[in-house]
């Protein structure tokens, strides 16, 4: 079989400079491709939850689609320059708009899974088509053995992926945010692909093809620029669609998105959302935090440690008990602490808990803070209150692990008590999550009493049911109005560990 060799290209520059231009474009396109991938994973984890599942879906679909794209690119090799420019223009538009489209599907249609798969598939196909076309182009500049050409392309590709992977969390996300960061990445992608073909391989294009590419890339850049200008109003409209029209505060901290709704004279109770999850509701905050704190405060409570709970509501309940000498709060997000100290509605809800001289705040990850033994200066503690996001939220899973509870046990006095929020059970008899938390706490040598408490029902709704686990080295009971101990322990329970998390989202 005779293989047709690529026709040498007529270049406006020496061959060495032409190869450098192609490899530079490979570098830029690889960086943009990885940014699209990471942006889909990050946004899906925030909107849908369970980052492990979302990362698996995005990565597996994209890798499969890249293989499909490589096969489809065979049909474009005869017009490799024009085909590559078209692929990059479509990729820039698709990748640049992906974050905005995904957020719109979640905000106005209530789900984003289908959009996540569709964009992963489309972006993967387009990324997969890049390398075969670039291989053809670089061989047209100067013929070399296939192994050497592949090595050069993959080296530039992998270095570009490294730069894109580092730029996303350390530059694009903190400086531009997810929406604008994706749009800017799309613009860079369009410019890199279009410039390479329209400058270096312009002799391969007829007048109509040149004008078509100039028009297409110009339209892509205009669309991305307009969307970037409108990203602020779009994000506010989408946020109102998710949280309601009375959003008062919405900030992206270094840790998460923090949203406050209600209050401020709106006539609606104040609510605090962290990464889309409701953490404080003015309608049931008192009942929830009473159920969380009071059972643990029935014994000695001279020194108290609150893990999470930066809103100050658990601290408010702790301070209601006489004999409390010191309260340490370990909260990873300084923005939540700032709002709990300064927002009038949150301050009214937590009764100005952070103005009390007995309260000391630490901004740190609770796991790291305990592991590094930074509690030794104030502890050990008589009571530990774990007011953390539910274990179904993937970043919090390690804070519901056997290893974490082992660290908590070291910070307790011999007769100390710990209470753990275990999520909404939906069942007065408990849920799999509640019983998994219970078994995990028991696995570190503590005796437990799981219990539930019901919150007030909303209009036409069933009451929320919260799950808790009270633990100590000696048996302890749970008493109080509205508190219901859970006694029907399911068989075959296993603890959750860092290497084998057992919580479902």
TrEMBL record:
Reactions accelerated catalytically: S-adenosyl 3-(methylsulfanyl)propylamine + putrescine = S-methyl-5'-thioadenosine + spermidine + H(+)
Q: What is its EC number?
A: 2.5.1.16
Q: How does it sit in the membrane?
A: Multi-pass membrane protein
| Recorded superkingdom | Bacteria
Residues binding spermidine are 289, 311
Q: Which Pfam families match?
A: Spermine_synth
Q: Which InterPro entries match?
A: MFS_trans_sf (IPR036259), PABS (IPR030374), PABS_CS (IPR030373), SAM-dependent_MTases_sf (IPR029063), Spermi_synthase (IPR001045)
Domain (PABS) spans: 231-473
Q: Which PROSITE patterns match?
A: PABS_1, PABS_2
Q: Where is this region: Disordered?
A: 479-505
The residue ranges crossing the membrane are 20-48, 54-73, 80-109, 115-138, 150-173, 179-201, 213-234
Q: Which residues does the annotation say bind S-methyl-5'-thioadenosine? A: 256, 331, 395
Q: In which pathway does it act?
A: Amine and polyamine biosynthesis; spermidine biosynthesis; spermidine from putrescine: step 1/1
Keyword Ribosomal protein assigned:
no
Query: What does the UniProt function comment say about this protein?
Result: Catalyzes the irreversible transfer of a propylamine group from the amino donor S-adenosylmethioninamine (decarboxy-AdoMet) to putrescine (1,4-diaminobutane) to yield spermidine.
Check the record and name the HAMAP family matching this protein: Spermidine_synth
- Quaternary structure? Homodimer or homotetramer.
Q: Which family does it belong to?
A: Belongs to the spermidine/spermine synthase family.
Record-given protein name: Polyamine aminopropyltransferase
- Species name: Streptomyces luteosporeus
